[in-house]
Amino acid sequence: MADLAKIVEMLSELTVLEAADLVKALETKWGVSAAAPVAAVAVAGPAAAVEEVEEQTEFDVVLKNAGPKKIETIKVIRQLTSLGLVEAKNMAETADSKVLTAVSKEAAEEAKKKLVEAGAEVVVA
Q1: Is the pTM of this model over 0.70?
Q2: Domain ranges of the chain
C-alpha cells in the first residue's frame, strides 16, 4: 500500500503547470475526465435553489393595450380602482400601466377577465 502522506507531500511541491500536466497524464492513462465531477456539482446547485422559491401570493394586473374599445376599458378600470375619469383615461392610454398591485391571484384573474372582455390586452405578473 502506498504511503498517502508521502504522495500528498510530493503533490504539494508541484507547480501549477506540473499539476496540470499530471492531470492530463492521469486522464489519458485512466480514460477519465477531471471536469465531469465539477459539472455535476454545478448542475445540482441551481436545481436546489429552484426548490426553495416560494409560491407567489401577490400579483399585479398590467394593462398592455386598451384595445379597440377604449371607453369600455376605461369603465372597467374605474370599476376596479377608485380612479376618476381622467386618471383612468390616462392609465388606458399608457402602455404597461398597473391597474391593480399586490392583489390575490383570484382578484387578479377576475380583473384580467373583465378587462379582456372590454377588449384590452392584460398581463398578470
Answers
A1: no
A2: 4-51, 59-124
* Residue 63 β-bridge partners: 97, 122
CA nearest to 99, candidates 89, 91, 107? 91
Report whether 111 contacts 59 (CB < 8 A).
Answer: no
Which class would CATH give 59-124? alpha beta
Beta strand spans in the chain (E): 59-65, 97-103, 121-124
Q: Are 11 and 19 in contact (CB under 8 A)?
A: yes
Q: Which three cell numbers stand for residue 100?
A: 391593480
Contact between 108 and 61 under an 8 Å Cβ cutoff? The reply is: yes
Yes or no: say if 68 and 90 are a contact pair by the CB < 8 Å rule.
no
pLDDT tens digit string along 31-54?
A: 877 665 544 445 555 555 555 667
Q: What is the pLDDT of residue 114?
A: 92
Grouping H, G, I as helix, E, B as strand and the rest as coil, residue 36 is helix
